[in-house]
Amino acid sequence: MRKTLPMRSRTSPISLPITIRRAVARDAKRLTRLVRGSGAYEGKYAAAVAGYRVGPDYIEAHRVFVAVGGDEHGGRVLGFYSLVLAPPELDLMFVADEAQGRGIGRQLVAHMQSEARAAGLDRLKVVSHLPAEAFYHRVGAVRTGTALANPPAVPWDRPEFEFRIPSE
Length: 168
What we know:
alpha+beta; five-stranded antiparallel β-sheet; disordered N terminus
């Protein structure tokens, strides 16, 4: 499924096309770099993604979709998400630091909700990274609790959200 949506910037009224497509094995290294290079995981959060890997096996096992930029972005991966069906969860969502603020995350969430609906889901969980909490509020997720720290991998509590997937 390919869906092209306009990409908007807070600083520019110009819309650039992006395509959201299913990830393929050859995207694995780019997705891993996007996770490990995320500015949201600097400082005290760096250890959480230091050895993280999005491998071809992960891409094959889950519904992973990438936002690919056109025009001056030259088809570069600008963001991605991973939808796990059982149990229903948004496992990963990242937008490249330099592409944030352009509506790509919002477009990925809308696409994810469409995929979840098509899979027959009516809700799904998200355990958020602390710096992403405000984003999830803005895109309609409802805070449902707190995922407690799990040292040494994640030594801090994280907000837990739920997306309710309305039927169309």
